Amino acid sequence: MLNIALFGPPGAGKGTQAKKIVEKYNLAHLSTGDMIRKEIAEGTELGKIAEEIIARGELLSDEFVVRLIENSMAQHRGVNGFLFDGFPRTVAQAEILDRMLEKEGTPLKGLICIHVPFEELKRRMLERAKIEGRADDNEEAIAKRFREYNDKTVHVANHYKKKGVHIDVEGNCPVEEVFNAITKAIEEMK
Questions:
Q1: How many CA atoms lie less than 13 Å away from 149 in the CB half-sphere?
Q2: Where along the chain is ATP bound (predicted)?
Q3: What pLDDT, in 10s, does the model give residues 21-43?
């Protein structure tokens, strides 16, 4: 089973690349962002809680996110693997994911980390705010999201470097070039 995590700062292009990876490798796409936006759009209790936290630029609790992932994994049996998009975001989540996958006998094959300079990320997010109307893509929330990323999320990469499954990809180039680099990395990990 091919289990991959797509990793990088907000605005790195994870969602764009995830769609292409899922199509090429027939993986179940587990996007915490999509799951959370669905909860918000449906006005569920979880959605209301998530909306408040996200609007402040903060991360949702590990328990909240893990519950979403577990539910989604249970609904996708018989797939070639999972593409985790936006998960794990903390070392605690990474450890939980490792245990979940080891229990299934299908560990994470790779954490693909997309690198993009901060100014380009900020530009992309502000542009996305205009196009998609995302409330979490404003100057204040963006600054807070990057602080959260640097304080909590960036450590996930070190967790997977120690396990020998971390792969760096340059993300400040055309979408197809990024995808080709990711595809090459996936082929090498299979």
A1: 17
A2: 11-16, 128, 173
A3: 999 999 999 998 888 888 899 99
In the numeric block, which tokens belong to residue 70? 């577990």
Is 12 among the annotated ligand-binding positions? yes
According to the annotation, is 43 in a ligand binding site? Answer: no
Whole-angstrom distance, CA of residue 147 vs CA of residue 111: 21
- Is residue 14 part of an annotated ligand binding site? yes
Half-sphere exposure of 93 (CA within 13 A, CB side): 27
Distance (Å, whole) CA 182 – CA 91: 23
Total tally of structural domains belonging to the chain: 1
DSSP class of residue 58 equals P
Residue 58 falls inside a structural domain:
yes
pTM of the full structure: 0.85
Which residues are catalytic, by number?
A: 14, 89, 128, 134, 145
Structural domain range at position 87:
1-181
